[in-house]
Amino acid sequence: MRTGYGKRETKETKIELNLNLDGQGAYKIETGIGFFDHMMAAFAVHSGFDLQIACEGDLEVDSHHSIEDIGIVLGHVFSQAIADKKGIARYGNFTIPMDESLASCSIDISGRPFLVFNGEFGDYRLGTMDSAMVEEFFRAFAMNAGVTLHINLHYGKNDHHKAEAIFKAFAHALKAAVKIEGEDILSSKGSL
Questions:
Q1: Dihedrals φ, ψ of 92, to 5°?
Q2: Does the pLDDT value for residue 192 go beyond 70?
Q3: How far apart are CA 107 and CA 142, in angstroms?
Q4: What does the pLDDT look like over 121-141, one tens digit per residue?
Q5: What Rg value do the Cα atoms of the chain yield, rounded?
Q6: pTM (2 decimals)?
Q7: Are 66 and 57 in contact (CB under 8 A)?
Q8: Handedness of CA 134, 139, 145, 151 (dihedral sign)
Q9: Which of 36, 158, 174 lies closest to 98 in space, CA to CA?
Q10: Which domains are delineated in the chain?
């Protein structure tokens, strides 16, 4: 089983996270940020990863510290779970329609962290979550997981649908990238 566990405690957040890449999409998400919980539940279900997140954060300030720190921890735990990367497909690409919105995600589990994020939100808020935190979450994940991540929101009107399309596209792309397809590392260099 490809699993990982992470814990992070700062003056702003206290986080524990468990991840199983070979799970069934089971989840228990408790961050205190309803919309973000909804997105992470969708991520777990659509990736097929088992995911548990417990976060206590300074939500009296805003959602920034909690969401960014969860991205950091998830990135570290993902890197732990993927281990030596032997046999993985490495690349994943997926496009998700969510009613009037369309989003794509392409990922390379390369060891080279990079984020390209093309997406705009009309409202400042998604429930109690700042819409700017969608991009910040993926930046934190990419930098700490060591992956190259391209996210493109092609179009949409409803911000809930736009965000959900992004998270679901990410889930399916990552699911494809971690799929075991062989025994070797998929690189002409012999390492990632």
A1: -145, 145
A2: no
A3: 9
A4: 998 899 999 999 999 999 999
A5: 16
A6: 0.95
A7: yes
A8: positive
A9: 158
A10: 3-178 (3.30.230.40)
| Token output for 144 | 């700490």
> Cα angle vertex 158, ends 155, 161, to 5°?
80
pLDDT above 70 covers a percentage of the chain that reads 96
Per the structure block, which two tokens stand in for 57? 């954060």
Write the secondary structure of 14-74 as one string of H (helix), E (strand) and C (coil): EEEEEEECCCCCCEEEECCCHHHHHHHHHHHHHHCCEEEEEEEECCCCCCHHHHHHHHHHH
State the number of CA atoms in the 13 A half-sphere of 21 facing the CB: 22
Burial (CB < 10 A; 0-12, 13-18, 19+), residue 98, is: buried
For 18: left if phi > 0, alpha if psi spans -120 to 50, otherwise beta; the answer is beta
Cα separation, 13 vs 7, whole angstroms: 10
Q: What share of the chain is helix, strand, coil (3-state, %, to 5)?
A: 35, 30, 35
